[in-house]
């Protein structure tokens, strides 16, 4: 791909082009055009008549009209047309007449074809496309499809209608194509599959129904599908299948039933498909797997039953599975695998048993797999590995062995010598301290990828590693300080080397010399203070260099020399203050240079000895106040300049005036005072300009003149009090104009004239000084303005008859002092608005809403006491309703409105005054997915069955309920198996897995438990959580400790976020800290600093753990003499359980004693215990050391702050 004018002068457009073959002949000479995010004067680009353009894409460009008609008139033989991600609402008459013979792929995904009151999407324009093979109408808000839509599309093979609002398979709308092969209906609202659902298309080979809400499938749903190969039903609500649902589907080979609610293996249904080859049942609730299940699927070649709760595999289970090649048993509860558990898997090539708490490599079981080539045992608890342990494997054929994230501490020499075919070995995330060349004896001629990251390696042995076939070596995240100079001598084929996150002493040039095929080197986070020119010298193939997050202060002459193939260099987050001229020599192919987060006060063209191909330059977060005219001129291909967070007070036009390919400039968070005439003008490809958070008080009228592609302009948080009438002259389309947080009180009527600016789509005027909405200015853009944010202004009145208000699709007037007449004019005059926010506008009552298109309504922070059901009579398309922070006294009236709101998906009634949540309050809300009920100060009762009629509820929040005496947590949750997010207040003093039952909620990925009555939590509470990304919150509880084994049942492969904010935790015990350390790469602990940590001898383990935790601000709450001291700065000698020391200390200021502090680093290695420390007997009262910090007086006691301690841990 290259700029179109470089391909042909006739294609003078800011697009990219590529030469492709003609479909008919296969000969090169046709052109594919990519005009994504490009806008043109008029509805279509000016293309040469009869040009050989066969593919045209123009996504994300605000197109409201299909340019197909123009293309037809120009006699273009377009075969593939992609106009996804635009604003097309309808297909005009004869749109495709000129393309009817050539067009075979039409993509119109993510437009607005179904966004109207008529629920049926209909058009006759597709009828002429007799050669169309692919049609994509995904993401168009389509609810129903007319029956004859595809009439005439005889050749259509693939039809995508994903991400719409279909509630059933559009059976009769599929008539027309003679042999549709692939039908995709992902992410709709289909609840059941009825008989003969696919009757119109019996030639279907692939049906994709993933992520709907299907609960039931009729026995005859798939009747007559003679050629069906693959059915995808993942992510639905299916718990059982009828015995005959797949009957007579003799050709079915692939079936995906993952992410459903199967409690038992669907044996009977699968028995009807004897030829099934691939079955996915992962992420269900299966507890058992045995021979009776497997004998009905004997022909399987791949089986995925990961993320279930299978505890054991009984011998003989697979005895007739001779065809199985791929088996995934990950994330079950298999502690061990019996010797004969895998008997019969004679063809098995790939076995994955990740994350099962397995303690030993099941050698003898694996030894019965004669064809095994790939073995993955990651995230288990294997501690030992040796040639003996691996000896029973049939190792000669294994090509991939993965044992990452186990607890392996050592590898004896020759552990892998029998693995004569091994090419990938992953041992990352173990506890290996030393590895030598002889560790990998026997792998010399085969090993290609070796991962040893995140171990505890301190040395690599003295001898060179002899692995001549190795291509990729990862040693990141260890504790290596030096590398023997000959270590890489025999690794001449390595292409990727990762040494990041070690503490390397100065690196010598000779070290990398043997690696002359190296393409990627990562030395980030290695404490490197300087790099010499010879370090990377001679590495001619190098493409990517990562030196970020080091301690570099200067780039010397010739730091990067003769890197003929270099593509990117990352030097971000160092301390670079100066770059010498000629730091970069002969780096012509460099495309990306990242220098953000340094201390540069200058950036010059002289750093480079020749012009470069840099396209992306990041110099943000430096000390730059000005640039030289040569700074960018030497990089003529620049596309992106990121220069935010510097000290620029001006940015002269000549810096960038020659950059014809520039698309993106970020100058936010600087000190710019004005934007002068032509500063950002005549830049033919400039699309994004970000100048928020400066000190701008003026933008010159011609500042952006003829930068026709400028579409995103961010001027937020400046000091602008007016916008000149000709400011936007010459622009085609402003997709986003952000003027938030300025001093604007008016906009001149002609500022958005169509003769100056063709299209304004989204404008943000929040946090300004408007007393009247600038509707006259916006009126000029009647057909284009879709979103206006006027929140946080001083608007009091709004006219009732203003036509611009009728057409805007998203309006935010929140937090304005609107009069009741203004509110009436917004809500009770007819409008086509889709999203409306009137939060904090003083609304006291509601009348009938005249907004039939409305999908989103925010009325929070008002004074509503009651909402009558008839209010919602005409807003039947409403999907989100926010009534939080009002004064609603009851939900009874509101609940009478639910039958009208059949598509409501999100409801927030938090922070209101009602007392009871009853069984009838949430009836008839079948589609509701999210419900918020927090901060209810008057609520005394929530009935167990209150949520019973919400079958599709995914997220429930109910906390801060002070008057509620009891909440039947277990009863509520049993009715909501599909929950993914739960944040709830507990009224019991203790909690365990029996209340929450994660095993019955297999999709739960965010669990919040709150309540000041909660004093204890059992170790098994989290057992059954299986999600890949997990969030657990234990906020505002009275828990004073966390059980050591709390995290044990949580999968080790899950990325876990644990928040304990506002609880009463006094210390984290060593065993719990060990569990945190065990997950160091995948766990984030938050909120500990807001707990009352007791700094006695029990806190020592916590203090040792803190430096690597990213939480340096944890302070002591007691004893009194350590109050508010940072725990990280307290010496072990002060962390005492000596009662006399602790009580006597309160009567006088404590002194930190220098000679004791010096020994604190030796105390670190002691295991912490709660027994009393040996007493220190003083002969004299200790004297105050020289004061490093001023004494602080804090009634009623005085306290001296100790100096910051420096020892091995901090």
How would you characterize the overall build of this protein?
With 1210 residues, the chain is mostly beta strands. The strands form 10 sheets. The protein has a 46-stranded mixed beta sheet. The protein has a two-stranded parallel ribbon with strand order 7-9. The longest helix has 10 residues. The two termini are 52 Å apart. 44% of the residues are buried. It is 7% helix and 17% strand. Among the domains are: 112 residues, Ribonuclease Inhibitor (Leucine-rich repeat, LRR (right-handed beta-alpha superhelix), Alpha-Beta Horseshoe); 171 residues, Ribonuclease Inhibitor (Leucine-rich repeat, LRR (right-handed beta-alpha superhelix)), CATH 3.80.10.10.
CATH superfamily of the domain at 795-965: Ribonuclease Inhibitor
- Label the structural class: mainly beta
If you average the pLDDT, what whole number results? 91
Shape: globular
CATH top level class name of the domain at 795-965: Alpha Beta
CATH architecture of the domain at 795-965: Alpha-Beta Horseshoe
Assembly classification: single chain
Outline the biggest β-sheet. 46 strands, mixed
Helix tally equals 16
Q: Count the strands?
A: 64
**CATH fold-type name of the domain at 795-965:** Leucine-rich repeat, LRR (right-handed beta-alpha superhelix)
Rg (CA only) = 34 Å
Task: Show unreliable segments.
Answer: 1144-1210
State the distance separating the first and last CA atoms: 52 Å
């Amino acid at each position: 791909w290259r700029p179109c004018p470089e391909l042909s002068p006739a294609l003078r457009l800011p697009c990219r082009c590529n030469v492709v073959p003609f479909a008919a002949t296969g000969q090169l000479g046709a052109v594919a055009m990519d005009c994504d995010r490009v806008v043109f004067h008029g509805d279509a680009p000016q293309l040469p008549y009869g040009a050989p353009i066969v593919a045209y894409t123009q996504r994300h460009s605000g197109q409201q009209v299909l340019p197909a008609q123009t293309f037809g008139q120009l006699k273009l033989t377009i075969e593939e047309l992609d106009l996804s991600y635009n604003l097309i609402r309808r297909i005009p008459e004869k749109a495709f007449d000129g393309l009817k013979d050539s067009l075979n792929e039409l993509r119109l995904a993510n437009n607005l074809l179904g966004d109207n009151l008529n629920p049926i999407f209909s058009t006759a324009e597709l009828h002429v496309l007799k050669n169309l093979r692919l049609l994509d109408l995904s993401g168009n808000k389509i609810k129903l499809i007319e029956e004859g839509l595809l009439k005439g599309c005889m050749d259509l093979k693939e039809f995508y209608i994903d991400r719409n609002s279909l509630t059933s398979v559009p059976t009769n709308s599929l008539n027309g194509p003679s042999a549709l092969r692939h039908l995709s209906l992902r992410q709709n609202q289909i609840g059941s599959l009825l008989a003969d659902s696919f009757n119109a298309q019996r030639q279907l080979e692939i049906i994709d129904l993933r992520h709907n809400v299907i609960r039931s499938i009729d026995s005859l749903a798939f009747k007559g599908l003679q050629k069906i190969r693959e059915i995808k039903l993942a992510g639905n609500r299916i718990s059982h299948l009828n015995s005959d649902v797949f009957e007579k589907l003799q050709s079915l080979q692939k079936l995906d039933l993952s992410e459903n609610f199967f409690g038992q293996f669907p044996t009977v249904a699968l028995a009807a498909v004897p030829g099934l080859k691939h079955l996915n049942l992962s992420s269900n609730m299966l507890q058992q797997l045995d021979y009776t299940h497997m004998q009905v699927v004997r022909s399987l070649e791949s089986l995925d039953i990961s993320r279930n709760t299978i505890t054991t595999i009984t011998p003989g289970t697979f005895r007739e599975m001779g065809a199985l090649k791929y088996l995934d048993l990950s994330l079950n509860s298999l502690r061990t695998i019996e010797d004969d558990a895998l008997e019969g898997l004679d063809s098995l090539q790939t076995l994955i048993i990740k994350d099962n708490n397995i303690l030993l490599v099941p050698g003898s079981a694996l030894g019965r797999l004669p064809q095994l080539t790939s073995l993955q045992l990651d995230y288990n608890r294997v501690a030992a590995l040796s040639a003996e342990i691996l000896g029973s494997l049939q190792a000669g054929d294994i090509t991939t062995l993965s044992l990452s994230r186990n607890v392996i501490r050592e590898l004896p020499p020759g552990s892998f010598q029998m693995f004569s075919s091994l090419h990938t070995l992953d041992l990352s995330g173990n506890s290996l301290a030393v590895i030598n060349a002889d560790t990998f004896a026997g792998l010399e001629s085969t090993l290609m990828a070796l991962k040893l990251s995140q171990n505890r390696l301190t040395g690599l042995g003295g001898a060179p590693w002899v692995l001549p076939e190795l291509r990729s070596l990862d040693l990141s995240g260890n504790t290596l300080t030096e590398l023997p100079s000959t270590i890489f001598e025999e690794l001449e084929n390595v292409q990727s080397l990762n040494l990041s996150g070690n503490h390397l002493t100065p690196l010598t040039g000779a070290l990398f010399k043997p690696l002359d095929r190296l393409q990627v080197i990562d030395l980030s986070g290695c404490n490197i203070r300087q790099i010499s020119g010879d370090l990377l010298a001679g590495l001619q193939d190098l493409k990517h260099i990562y030196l970020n997050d080091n301690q570099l202060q200067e780039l010397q002459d010739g730091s990067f020399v003769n890197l003929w193939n270099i593509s990117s260099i990352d030097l971000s987050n160092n301390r670079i203050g100066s770059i010498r001229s000629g730091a970069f020599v002969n780096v012509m192919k460099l495309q990306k240079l990242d220098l953000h987060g340094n201390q540069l006060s200058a950036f010059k063209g002289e750093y480079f000895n020749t012009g470069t191909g840099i396209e992306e330059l990041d110099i943000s977060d430096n000390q730059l106040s000005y640039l030289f005219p040569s700074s960018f001129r030497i990089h003529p291909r620049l596309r992106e300049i990121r220069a935010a967070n510097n000290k620029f007070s001006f940015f002269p036009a000549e810096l960038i005036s020659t950059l014809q390919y520039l698309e993106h400039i970020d100058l936010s968070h600087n000190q710019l005072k004005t934007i002068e005439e032509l500063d950002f003008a005549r830049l033919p490809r400039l699309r994004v300009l970000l100048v928020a958070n400066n000190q701008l008080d003026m933008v010159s009228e011609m500042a952006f003149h003829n930068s026709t592609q400028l579409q995103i302009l961010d001027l937020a948080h400046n000091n602008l009090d007016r916008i000149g009438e000709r400011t936007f002259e010459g622009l085609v389309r402003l997709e986003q104009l952000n003027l938030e947080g300025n001093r604007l009180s008016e906009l001149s009527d002609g500022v958005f004239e169509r003769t100056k600016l063709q299209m304004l789509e989204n404008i943000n005027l929040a946090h300004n000084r408007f007393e009247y909405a600038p509707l006259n200015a916006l009126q000029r853009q009647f057909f284009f303005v879709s979103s206006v944010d006027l929140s946080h202004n001083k608007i009091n009145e709004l006219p009732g008859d203003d036509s611009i208000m009728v057409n805007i699709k998203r309006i935010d007037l929140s937090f304005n002092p609107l009069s009741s007449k203004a509110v009436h004019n917004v809500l009770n005059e007819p409008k086509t608005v889709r999203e409306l926010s009137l939060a904090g506008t003083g609304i006291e009552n509601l009348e009938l809403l005249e907004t039939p298109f409305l999908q989103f309504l925010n009325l929070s922070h008002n004074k509503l006491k009651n909402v009558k059901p008839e209010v919602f009579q005409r807003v039947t398309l409403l999907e989100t309703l926010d009534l939080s922070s009002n004064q609603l006294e009851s939900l009874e009236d509101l609940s009478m409105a639910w039958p009208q709101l059949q598509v409501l998906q999100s409801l927030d009634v938090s922070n209101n005054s009602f007392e009871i949540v009853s069984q009838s309050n949430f009836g008839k809300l079948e589609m509701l997915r999210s419900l918020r009920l927090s901060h209810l100060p008057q609520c005394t009762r929530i009935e167990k069955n209150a949520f019973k009629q919400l079958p599709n509820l995914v997220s429930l929040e109910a906390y801060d309920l002070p008057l509620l005496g009891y909440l039947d947590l277990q009863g509520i949750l049993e009715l909501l198996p599909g929950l993914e997010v739960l944040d709830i207040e507990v009224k019991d003093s203790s909690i365990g897995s029996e209340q929450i039952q994660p095993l019955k909620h297999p999709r739960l990925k965010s669990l919040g438990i709150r309540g000041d009555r909660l004093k204890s939590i059992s170790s098994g509470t989290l057992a059954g959580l299986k999600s890949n990304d997990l969030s657990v919150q234990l906020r505002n509880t009275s828990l004073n400790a966390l059980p050591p084994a709390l995290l044990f049942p949580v999968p080790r492969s899950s990325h876990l976020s644990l928040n304990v904010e506002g609880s009463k935790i006094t210390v984290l015990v060593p065993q719990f800290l060990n569990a945190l350390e065990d997950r160091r790469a995948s766990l984030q602990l938050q909120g500990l600093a807001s707990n009352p940590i007791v700094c006695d001898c029990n806190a020592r383990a916590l203090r040792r753990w803190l430096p690597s935790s990213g939480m340096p601000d944890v302070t002591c709450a007691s004893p009194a003499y350590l109050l508010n001291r940072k725990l990280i700065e307290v010496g072990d000698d002060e962390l005492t359980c000596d009662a006399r020391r602790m009580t006597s200390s309160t009567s006088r200021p404590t002194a930190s004693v220098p000679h004791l502090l010096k020994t604190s680093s030796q105390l670190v290695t002691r295991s912490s215990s709660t027994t009393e420390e040996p007493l220190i007997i003083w002969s004299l009262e200790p004297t105050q050391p020289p004061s490093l910090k001023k004494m602080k007086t804090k009634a009623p006691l005085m306290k001296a702050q100790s100096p910051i301690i420096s020892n091995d841990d901090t």
